[in-house]
């Protein structure tokens, strides 16, 4: 019924089903089953976390890791202590029924109820299609706060057995957080590497490849839980580490099996968890205290809102993409509680915590409120606030390549600036991965680059074999090269090519190979050092050529006036004095006519200034001979350019103007120096002109 599921989330409907089933079982006189903590933590929770960790969107997760950690660690600690402290005050003021609950019990209750639940967040956020940033912030917080919850839960549970708590116990409790979180990650990384290494040798037994992924992941979870480490962080680390290497080794069918089996397994676990929540609500022993339950619900909301506002104000000082007030509202409103809190409450011992039934009643109330009220109203609120939704279409290969190019560019900018940001360390990690890790964990040719050509040859060979077996050439796809066609059957191609119909999985594989191969950046071979540079034999010749071209352009610009502006006729002395009197500034003393250059032009197009050949220019005064009166009267002498002999190179073959004296003359003309200023009383036009 789509109209119902659009309004009510699936998790709410499953809890209602559980309530109905529990009521029916109780109505016929049987005792309904209760969700036991061992069943939940050992069998129902791991598939959901493995599915989330194996298919974790790694890029947005790593880019926002600092924000996620602040929300997960600082936010959960704030919620636990704020809620525990206020509930202790409520218990002291709440009357005779609550006075016996001490501070440690309230802090333990605060640590159980403060953590955001990954199962509830996944169930609700997958349906509303919120944008990737908000989804990864809330979901990443729900995954990583497991370490804080585990530490606080075991810490307060142990402290409840102590007669006296010393400062050393508190310090050791603080240090145990790092042991639990980092220890869980380390266990997951070890099992992930083992799984990747094992998948290298499964090419001849493809059937058991998916089994190794599930086996090693579950072993990582059990090993972490065995030593009271964070099993959720171990599962996430194992999934993230093993995925790129395992997918390179296993077959395509094994990859499809892993994908759909994980999705099915996590979906079944999620369904059972919410149904069991409903059944356990009917079957469990409850102790209702209005003051305690309402105070818990109110302070949970207040702590979440205050924590998000304060932490976001601090985080936005360091973020480039700021979290807007709308984003902060969705993050605060998306802090859903779920079955993890219920199972931790169910684990409490009656001997040390006689108020366990009241705790469980308050926990179930908070779970129902967050899942039903917040889960049902978050979709209309997202539409009302016009929060950005998730992009449904895939990014094109062009966008992905440009994203990788910008990553590489930012890495180079960080290197130049001397700032070692996350782009720098990401690049270092990628190089180490490509140079060492891939060779150990990926089998055969797949560890080497490029994959694109190998994939093309593989497809070409497969289609060629199919062509030979079928004995025809009518359906040759465009991927087969002309060389292979000639080798198989030298016939002409039909007019209309039949393109192969690609499946979605094959298309995804081709996209992946194109994405990883089309953007290839040049690797730096060694650092620049001017003392260790090897001399290039052609470098000097190229430099000379560039210098000659540059000087030629400068001379060409200077000589354009001689070619385009016609010379004035020599006026009579009377006309000269009249011109000087009308505009004396326009007539400056002219240089000696002996310094006028000779310009040789190409007769191909005498009108165009581009056809001037400046390589053979020779001034009259620099040849060592006195100028003849005929040349003095001519001014500019035009000579026809001699055609160059075939096979000569104007770069490396010295021309007529390449003698040292001519080069000195060229430098002279390019920079003639300061012009002498006329002395006072000296006429503007020298005598004799």
Automatic annotation (TrEMBL):
<keyword id="KW-0472">Membrane</keyword>
<comment type="similarity">
    <text>Belongs to the monovalent cation:proton antiporter 1 (CPA1) transporter (TC 2.A.36) family.</text>
</comment>
<keyword id="KW-0050">Antiport</keyword>
<dbReference type="Pfam" id="PF16644">
    <property type="entry name" value="NEXCaM_BD"/>
</dbReference>
<dbReference type="GO" id="GO:0015386">
    <property type="term" value="F:potassium:proton antiporter activity"/>
</dbReference>
<keyword id="KW-0175">Coiled coil</keyword>
<keyword id="KW-0112">Calmodulin-binding</keyword>
<keyword id="KW-0449">Lipoprotein</keyword>
<keyword id="KW-1133">Transmembrane helix</keyword>
<feature type="transmembrane region" description="Helical">
    <location>
        <begin position="168"/>
        <end position="198"/>
    </location>
</feature>
<feature type="transmembrane region" description="Helical">
    <location>
        <begin position="359"/>
        <end position="382"/>
    </location>
</feature>
<keyword id="KW-1003">Cell membrane</keyword>
<keyword id="KW-0406">Ion transport</keyword>
<keyword id="KW-0813">Transport</keyword>
<feature type="domain" description="Cation/H+ exchanger transmembrane">
    <location>
        <begin position="8"/>
        <end position="382"/>
    </location>
</feature>
<dbReference type="Pfam" id="PF00999">
    <property type="entry name" value="Na_H_Exchanger"/>
</dbReference>
<protein>
    <recommendedName>
        <fullName>Sodium/hydrogen exchanger</fullName>
    </recommendedName>
</protein>
<feature type="transmembrane region" description="Helical">
    <location>
        <begin position="68"/>
        <end position="91"/>
    </location>
</feature>
<keyword id="KW-0597">Phosphoprotein</keyword>
<dbReference type="GO" id="GO:0098719">
    <property type="term" value="P:sodium ion import across plasma membrane"/>
</dbReference>
<feature type="transmembrane region" description="Helical">
    <location>
        <begin position="218"/>
        <end position="241"/>
    </location>
</feature>
<dbReference type="InterPro" id="IPR001970">
    <property type="entry name" value="NHE-1-like"/>
</dbReference>
<feature type="domain" description="Sodium/hydrogen exchanger regulatory region">
    <location>
        <begin position="479"/>
        <end position="564"/>
    </location>
</feature>
<feature type="transmembrane region" description="Helical">
    <location>
        <begin position="6"/>
        <end position="25"/>
    </location>
</feature>
<feature type="region of interest" description="Disordered">
    <location>
        <begin position="600"/>
        <end position="689"/>
    </location>
</feature>
<feature type="transmembrane region" description="Helical">
    <location>
        <begin position="103"/>
        <end position="124"/>
    </location>
</feature>
<dbReference type="GO" id="GO:0015385">
    <property type="term" value="F:sodium:proton antiporter activity"/>
</dbReference>
<feature type="transmembrane region" description="Helical">
    <location>
        <begin position="328"/>
        <end position="347"/>
    </location>
</feature>
<feature type="coiled-coil region">
    <location>
        <begin position="504"/>
        <end position="531"/>
    </location>
</feature>
<dbReference type="InterPro" id="IPR004709">
    <property type="entry name" value="NaH_exchanger"/>
</dbReference>
<dbReference type="InterPro" id="IPR032103">
    <property type="entry name" value="NHE_CaM-bd"/>
</dbReference>
<feature type="transmembrane region" description="Helical">
    <location>
        <begin position="136"/>
        <end position="156"/>
    </location>
</feature>
<keyword id="KW-0832">Ubl conjugation</keyword>
<keyword id="KW-0564">Palmitate</keyword>
<keyword id="KW-0915">Sodium</keyword>
<dbReference type="InterPro" id="IPR006153">
    <property type="entry name" value="Cation/H_exchanger_TM"/>
</dbReference>
<feature type="transmembrane region" description="Helical">
    <location>
        <begin position="37"/>
        <end position="56"/>
    </location>
</feature>
<feature type="transmembrane region" description="Helical">
    <location>
        <begin position="290"/>
        <end position="316"/>
    </location>
</feature>
<keyword id="KW-0325">Glycoprotein</keyword>
<dbReference type="GO" id="GO:0051453">
    <property type="term" value="P:regulation of intracellular pH"/>
</dbReference>
<dbReference type="InterPro" id="IPR018422">
    <property type="entry name" value="Cation/H_exchanger_CPA1"/>
</dbReference>
<feature type="transmembrane region" description="Helical">
    <location>
        <begin position="262"/>
        <end position="284"/>
    </location>
</feature>
């Amino acid at each position: 019924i789509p109209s119902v599921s659009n309004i009510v989330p699936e998790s709410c409907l499953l809890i209602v089903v559980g309530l109905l089933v529990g009521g029916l079982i109780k109505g016929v006189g049987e005792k309904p089953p209760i969700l036991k903590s061992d069943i939940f933590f050992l069998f129902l929770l791991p598939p959901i976390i493995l599915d989330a960790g194996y298919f974790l969107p790694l890029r947005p997760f790593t880019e926002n890791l600092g924000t996620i950690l602040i929300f997960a660690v600082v936010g959960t600690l704030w919620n636990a202590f704020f809620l525990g402290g206020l509930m202790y005050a409520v218990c002291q003021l709440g009357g005779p029924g609550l006075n016996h609950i001490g501070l440690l019990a309230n802090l333990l209750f605060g640590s159980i109820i403060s953590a955001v639940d990954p199962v509830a967040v996944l169930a609700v956020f997958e349906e509303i299609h919120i944008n990737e940033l908000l989804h990864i912030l809330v979901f990443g917080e729900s995954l990583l706060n497991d370490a804080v919850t585990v530490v606080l839960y075991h810490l307060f549970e142990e402290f409840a057995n102590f007669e006296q708590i010393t400062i050393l116990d508190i310090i050791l409790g603080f240090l145990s957080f790092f042991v639990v979180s980092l220890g869980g990650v380390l266990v997951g990384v070890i099992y992930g590497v083992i799984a990747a290494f094992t998948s290298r040798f499964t090419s001849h037994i493809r059937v058991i490849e998916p089994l190794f992924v599930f086996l090693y992941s579950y072993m990582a979870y059990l090993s972490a839980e065995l030593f009271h480490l964070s099993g959720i962080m171990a599962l996430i680390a194992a999934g993230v580490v093993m995925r790129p290497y395992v997918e390179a080794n296993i077959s395509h069918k094994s990859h499809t099996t892993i994908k759909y089996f994980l999705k099915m397994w996590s979906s079944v676990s999620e369904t059972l968890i919410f149904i069991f929540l409903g059944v356990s609500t009917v079957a469990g022993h409850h102790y209702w205290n209005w003051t305690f339950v309402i105070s818990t619900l109110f302070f949970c909301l207040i702590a979440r809102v205050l924590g998000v506002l304060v932490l976001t104000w601090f985080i936005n000082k360091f973020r480039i993409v700021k979290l807007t007030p709308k984003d902060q509202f969705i993050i605060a409103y998306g802090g859903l509680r779920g079955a993890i809190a219920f199972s931790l409450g169910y684990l409490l011992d009656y001997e040390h915590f006689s108020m366990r039934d009241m705790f469980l009643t308050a926990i179930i109330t908070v779970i129902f409120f967050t899942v039903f009220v917040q889960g049902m109203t978050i979709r209309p609120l997202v539409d009302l606030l016009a929060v950005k939704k998730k992009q449904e279409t895939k990014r094109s290969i062009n966008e992905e390549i440009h994203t990788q190019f910008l990553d590489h560019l930012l890495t180079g900018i960080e290197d130049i600036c001397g700032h070692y940001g996350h782009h720098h360390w990401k690049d270092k990690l990628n190089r180490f991965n490509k140079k060492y890790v891939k060779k150990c964990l990926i089998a055969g040719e797949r560890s080497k680059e490029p994959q694109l050509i190998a994939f093309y040859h593989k497809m070409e060979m497969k289609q060629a074999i199919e062509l030979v077996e079928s004995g025809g050439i009518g359906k040759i796809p465009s991927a087969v090269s002309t060389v292979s066609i000639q080798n198989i059957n030298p016939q002409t191609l039909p007019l209309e090519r039949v393109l192969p119909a690609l499946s979605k999985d094959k298309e995804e594989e081709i996209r992946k190979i194109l994405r990883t191969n089309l953007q290839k950046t040049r690797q730096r071979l060694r650092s620049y050092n001017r003392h260790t540079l090897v001399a290039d034999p052609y470098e000097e010749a190229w430099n000379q050529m560039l210098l000659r071209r540059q000087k030629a352009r400068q001379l060409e610009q200077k000589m354009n006036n001689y070619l385009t502006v016609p010379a004035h006729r020599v006026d009579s002395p009377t006309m000269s004095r009249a011109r000087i009197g009308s505009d004396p500034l326009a007539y400056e003393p002219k240089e000696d006519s002996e310094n006028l250059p000779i310009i040789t032009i190409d007769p191909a197009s005498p009108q165009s200034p581009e056809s001037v050949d400046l390589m053979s220019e020779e001034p009259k005064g620099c040849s060592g001979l006195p100028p003849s009166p005929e040349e003095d009267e001519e001014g500019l002498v035009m000579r026809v350019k001699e055609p160059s002999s075939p096979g000569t190179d104007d770069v490396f073959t010295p021309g007529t103007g390449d003698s040292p004296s001519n080069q000195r003359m060229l430098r002279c003309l390019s920079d003639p120096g300061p012009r002498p200023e006329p002395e006072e009383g000296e006429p503007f036009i020298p005598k004799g002109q």
